[in-house]
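Example 3.2
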Amino acid sequence: MNDQLTEDPQTVLDRILQQATRNETPCGDGKMIWHLWDQSGGTAPIVVLFHGGAGSWRHWIRTIPALVPTYRVLAPDLPGLGESDFPPDGDDAFAIATIVANGIDAIVGVETSFDVVGFSFGGTMAACVGALRGKRVRSVTIIGSSGVGAVGSAVKLEKVRHLEGQERRDTHRTNLNRLMIADPAKIDDLSIEIQDWNTIRSRLRTPAISRSGAIMKAIDQLQSPLNGMWGEFDAPANPKGPERVATLRAHCPDADIRLIPKTGHWAAYESAGTVNAILLEMLARTRP
């Protein structure tokens, strides 16, 4: 993982992307883009990674290398984000999740089981896909998800679309520290590059979907084990983080829920080693 701190960011992104195969599935009249990492020749279990709002598969840049030795990893750009086209109904979580679930079916087959992992808004998608596909989903893991329990603090972000050069980078750094990464020393060139790429291509209004109640409705319909992680300093959750954990445990007493110490919202980037180890442990419990 140290090479991701010192290499040119585009080199890191290109190297990981070149290891994947690209797939396209329908998204209304357009298409949804997926990337599949498979070192097993099609034999390893599948885990699907759903990124956060205003994001892309790049949110998992430090998770994918930890999973690909033992899993087939499928990571989309969710509808209306990244390279994927806007969905026909951009306000309905289950309508969007149906497009996503149908895309998984088209790529891996309608009888193949899989785990789903979602970060932030991706947690809503993971829970909804879990509800839609029932026992085919081996487990659902949500990381830093909103819509669980009490509403946390509003996070004020600075506008960047009109900025250029160093001013734009500095503003991304400010926003990353306010929303995504608690320790400013962990905000490196790679995180800024990902934030910039994602921001340019963000069209879906994900906060409203995350707060719509869909995630809890979906969680109550799950037929598979539920796992959860939040950073101790998750900005959108604070100061309501403990209430979110309590709400999730009340709905799913058997859920495995962890708080990641000294970590912000984008836990899979800021504390990649810790999150990857926990995620592999959680996934191992339902590995076929």
